Amino acid sequence: MSDDPLSGSQPRRDLDQAEAPGPPPGAPPRGRRPILPPKLNPVTLIKDLGGLSMYYPGQKLVSRSPRSVLHPVSAVGGDFVRWLAAGGREMREELRLLFKDRRLPRPERQIIRDAYREAMFNEIEVLRYPDLNPETIDNTCVIEGREHLDAALERGHGAIVLIGHFGANQMIMPALGHKGYPMNQLSAPPPVWADILRETRTTPLWEKVLARRWELEKRLPVRHINVFKFLRPAFSCLRDNQVLGLAFDGGGGQKHTQVRLVQRDAYVSVQPVQLWRKTGAALLPTVVIRPPGQRLHRVIIEAPLPWQPVPGDRAEETRLNMQAFVDRFGAWVERYPDHYLQFMLHRRRVRATDVRPFFGDYPALSDQMSADQALDHLKAAGDRT
Fold first, then answer.
1. Core-most of 47, 156, 217, 238, by most CB within 10 Å?
2. Closest CA to 354 of 234, 207, 253, 208
3. Are 183 and 177 in contact (CB under 8 A)?
4. 41 pLDDT higher than 80
5. Neighbour-count burial for 312-334, b at 16+ CB within 10 Å, e otherwise
6. Residues 46-99: pLDDT tens digits?
7. Which residue has the higher pLDDT, 58 or 236?
8. 29 within 8 A of 349, measured Cβ to Cβ
9. Strand pairing class (282-289; 297-301)
10. Beta-sheet strands, E only, within the chain
11. Are 260 and 125 spatial neighbours (Cβ–Cβ below 8 Å)?
12. Per-domain residue ranges for the chain?
């Protein structure tokens, strides 16, 4: 099979293996049986009833309410979820491991509090997707660095908007799509998580929530490329000089490289570098930030990364270029750790079934799946989407 992504051959399923998406909000560890079945767990029931009320009658209410109402509502909801999580004990440990002896940008208590509140705010934003359009998007997002994206598209080889699960990263889709950019997103449809977490999290109520979220996401001005299927559309959109969004920090992929994220060793899929190398597209590090109390999300598109060749050493070339991206991303994490802690907490909780756990300093688990077991688990769920 040809490695040329623009040839007539079907590209490999993943450029080694398609990167699995990050876990959805509220997801417990995959592959680990709970003490109580999900249907009988009172905490799960509370979360599901809250989600159901948000995504069904709540969606209409939120879409018709002034956006300023989201701040007090998300503060109350975030504080309640933090209380359910024993005050954020695990999140606090993740924060300390990330910074070690480095000085925090703000007091730890404030960072943990804001992490839960911002996660709730970002989840509520999803309910407003149907009301976003070219006339209203400026009331939600402001794009900085559009000149970098425009210059990348002028080259004619497409643009990879590379993100992490940082802040309201999902807002990149409507922000760029409603400004007229041909936007594609490599991701997984939310309902797939009902299969991935069938024994540990899934309930009939949660399946309704996931289905409703997918309905809302499909209304965005973006072409969704299913990460579990063949990736020809990802190559094709770049060949056609379009924009491809993807995250670097998901849990899948057969091949990983080690990078340094702030003060921790992390293991990330090589997929973004493979796409970059094979297509010649510009790679644009991008983040979405919204400091506490601010009204608008700032979608910040940075200058493209220069490709750094390492003749004769493909593995080191991959690591070097991936580290260059992580260095830029890590600078944002150091400034706004509250934007990343929810995702770090999820990766900690799902590590038993990760193909490669995100960080190398997690405590050992007796029920850790092998890489092959984890890949089979994800493939089985993806095949049913």
1. 238
2. 253
3. yes
4. no
5. eeeeebbbbbbbbbbeebbebbb
6. 777 888 788 888 788 887 888 888 889 999 999 999 988 888 999 999 999 999
7. 236
8. yes
9. antiparallel
10. 141-144, 159-163, 183-187, 223-226, 243-247, 256-261, 264-269, 282-289, 297-301
11. no
12. 38-383
